[in-house]
Amino acid sequence: MAGVISSVISIGDELLVGQVVNTNAAWLGDRLTRFGIRVRRVVAIGDERSTIRREIEAAAAGSDVVIVSGGLGPTHDDVTRDAVCDILGCDMDLDRGQLARIERRFTERGITINERSRLQAMVPTAARALPNDYGSAPGLAFTVGAARVYVLPGVPGEMQGIFTDRIIPELHELAGDVEQRTFLVSGITESGLADELMESMALLSADVTLAYLPSAGLIRLRAMRLGASTDVYERYHALLDLIAAKGGRWLVSDRDETLAAALGRLLAERQMTLATAESCTGGLIGEMITDIPGSSAYYLGGVVSYANSAKENILGVAPELLARHGAVSREVAEAMATGVRGRFGADIALSVTGIAGPEGGTPEKPVGTVWIGLATAGNVRAERFMLGRERPYIRQRAANTALEMVWREVHNSTVKR
Amino acid sequence: MAGVISSVISIGDELLVGQVVNTNAAWLGDRLTRFGIRVRRVVAIGDERSTIRREIEAAAAGSDVVIVSGGLGPTHDDVTRDAVCDILGCDMDLDRGQLARIERRFTERGITINERSRLQAMVPTAARALPNDYGSAPGLAFTVGAARVYVLPGVPGEMQGIFTDRIIPELHELAGDVEQRTFLVSGITESGLADELMESMALLSADVTLAYLPSAGLIRLRAMRLGASTDVYERYHALLDLIAAKGGRWLVSDRDETLAAALGRLLAERQMTLATAESCTGGLIGEMITDIPGSSAYYLGGVVSYANSAKENILGVAPELLARHGAVSREVAEAMATGVRGRFGADIALSVTGIAGPEGGTPEKPVGTVWIGLATAGNVRAERFMLGRERPYIRQRAANTALEMVWREVHNSTVKR
After folding, report:
1. Parallel, antiparallel, or unpaired: how do β-strands B299-305 and B348-354 relate?
2. Dihedral class, residue B145 (left if φ above 0, else alpha if ψ from -120 to 50, else beta)
3. Are the Cβ atoms of B314 and A301 closer than 8 angstroms?
4. Which of A72, A286, B355, B404 is most buried, by CB atoms within 10 Å?
């Protein structure tokens, strides 16, 4: 199959001056790719009517689908709607259905609607409105030549909501019979995993694909089929079997989820509780765990023991251990894990103590040295990792490594709590 | 002045499939804007030689400066160097200086250099190598027509390092006499601030600008002058005076820094220590504070008291308070702040307890309700905030609001500790 090609256009001056990171484009790229729709190009441009027109027309010339986001709001610098009129050579008309929806939204919140907000119900006559259940401005859909163009608000929640509700059903029809599965892999390098899955080479083609998506010590592995012939089906399922057989030792999840979500699901299944003691990660691990809605079912909480006094007073780490071995040591990591487990009454506890830099490294314990501890009812142990040289990367790697250690410990334990 | 125009091109398949968020483009947009160089357009494309050539040539046609990042690595899908040869119509040659530098890098780490890594010292003969003190592949500089084109590695640390060391000095010369100051403003809306600074309208022009950069309850306010005439100088300094006079109440910093950095600097100056008790933010505040190198000088640590049992056992919140008022209440926020301050022996402590959703809201305490507490030696108090409806936004707003409350408390206190 030839494949469906798409382009993404992000509109907003804030993207060009670096005020906002373009997470919308990443989200859209991820979603489109899951439907087997290849993203050819992402463009970010300012709120400028003629530029918007030119970029949409250029993208439409080389794509089957163009997703545009931004510039639909109520302020004078939101000109995307006008640019669409320029492209389609049409006027705007008040869409009474959209206006009623927007007015209802304001009434529900007890806010008086102003004229500017009402203008968001103006829809280019040659475009179709995509109702917005998450905000005011409706999305727009129209065609330029053979390309389908969708225009969405720039607010992430609204963009994602309309895309999911209104556009995905239409893309399904366009992309045909596509299926994919994303695995979360940990504890092996990308090239190591590729060696393990060497036999996959004979199964892959343009319509059965395997993508390695590494970041900070984890790999997302995505298998996909595009099309539904017997041959495609057979190779796709042979690929899934191969991943299960050869990659099994490193598979953390066969759902498309974060490591924190996979761990949370496992802890909830086993009815186990977790506590954390963080030094160099400073709260990052707690933040990742509690980013998952419902994490209160298994996460009791943690201690950020940044100062040695906190390690002593709150976690009960013996001052002699700190004096003899230093804060970044097997002994202190173990004592932190045991201490936090006891303090919170958790089934399992993790600890992290390391040197995130840029200062604090020594020849024996250079920047990047991280000890991770794990305590359960009957056992405590710690491992040392060397996690690179840059502070943010060291912290992210340390957090991922700690969560993976807990996942593996719980996964491999046969008994519940 | 006409202004210098730039374009940014980010190269890498990982950007198109949404595996990686394009933080490089945001970083470059921010840096270029600071030099008064307008970013016209950001494009992300895949690792495809002909596409890279086409995009660089198209960007060069409409820009004075083109910054390209990505595709200089050692693997077979890194083809940016080849695309540069196509553009310049030249071959590549081994740059012995660069090779020596790369070999030294490997030797220092005790790694044997392979042939692929050696290839990174190949430089298109019509381009100039920009030495890389942060990794292997050197950057490249060349001209296409009147445009200066710079090509950098995609690894953020290397990209930022080479840009700062090698390119900024050249941009200085190109952009002319540019000066800017960025203020951090908190506790006022963007439109409220614009009203306060109404008189600035008379001072602004194409060469004296004022930008409002809001995010999650904070505003970065950036004043800039482009050019050095007496008139420009006078209006720029009148603008700075106006900001100090009218915006003073809301100014957290007149340096370009994060809220956590401004707070850290203030705490260090006052020789005060801080502890945190986080519930719905789950460690985010600790993570933001410890993101700043050197934060151990003032941050003792914190407790993530996600479960009520943790609030009771570790922070000493009375069970009756939790039973009578609920975990999200003034009383519990105050008890958490007092408790964590005592546990850590800190000069000042903050607490956050709220409903981040999507579950857990009630008519009396809907999702978005957050209580923030503050405890010092002589005082404890808490304030309620309604911080929106989406979990990540609520958490970020809560963290910013809590850090701001501490900053204001310390800033307004006349005595040291």
Report:
1. unpaired
2. left
3. yes
4. A286
pLDDT above 60 (res B416): no
Question: Which residues, in sequence order, are CB contacts of B62 under 8 Å at separation 6+?
Answer: B5, B7, B40, B41
CB contact under 8 A, A359 and B390: no
Whether the CB of A77 is below 8 Å from some CB of chain B: the reply is no
Locate the chain A residue with the closest alpha carbon to B357: A293
Q: Is the dihedral of CA A278, A279, A285, A290 positive or negative?
A: positive
Question: What's the CA gap between A134 and B380, in Å, rounded?
Answer: 38
Residues of A in contact with B17 (CB under 8 A): 29-30, 33, 39, 211, 213
Structure tokens at A376: 């359960």
Is a pLDDT exceeding 90 seen at residue A71?
A: yes
Q: Could you give the angle at the alpha carbon of A331 between the alpha carbons of A326 and A335, nearest 5°?
A: 110
A400-411: average pLDDT: 96
A75 touches chain B (CB under 8 A): no
Percent of chain A with pLDDT strictly greater than 90: 78
Point out the least confidently predicted range of A44-53, A114-123, B137-146, B238-247.
Answer: A114-123
Pairing outcome for strands B218-226 and B178-186: antiparallel
> What sign does the CA torsion over B242, B245, B251, B256 have?
positive
User: How many beta-carbon pairs below 8 A join chains A and B?
Assistant: 244
CA angle A25, B55, A159 (to 5 degrees): 15
Q: How far is A232 from chain B (nearest CA, A)?
A: 22
Please say if the pLDDT value at position B323 is more than 70: yes
* Alpha-carbon distances of A44 from A154, B42, B255, rounded to whole Å: 12, 5, 28
Can you tell me the mean pLDDT for B152-159? 92
- How far apart (Å, rounded) are the C-alpha atoms in residues A156 and B106? 43
pLDDT above 70: percentage of residues in chain A: 99
Window B:26-65, CB contacts with A under 8 Å:
26-31, 33, 38-46, 51
| Mean pLDDT, rounded, for B82-109 | 92
Reduced to 3 states, what is the DSSP secondary structure of residue B354? strand
In chain B, the domains with their CATH numbers are 4-175 (3.40.980.10), 178-253 (3.30.70.2860), 259-412 (3.90.950.20)
Residues of A with Cβ-Cβ distance to B366 under 8 angstroms: none
- DSSP per residue, A61-87: HH-SEEEEES--SSSTT--HHHHHHHH
φ and ψ at residue B305, rounded to 5 degrees: -100, 75
Cα torsion A407, B396, A109, B371: sign: positive
pLDDT in tens, B13-62: 999 999 889 999 999 999 999 888 999 999 999 999 999 999 999 999 99
Q: What pTM, to 2 d.p., does this model score?
A: 0.89
Contact A301 B300 (CB under 8 A): no
- Whether B272 shows a pLDDT value over 80: the answer reads yes
Closest chain B CA to residue A395: B291
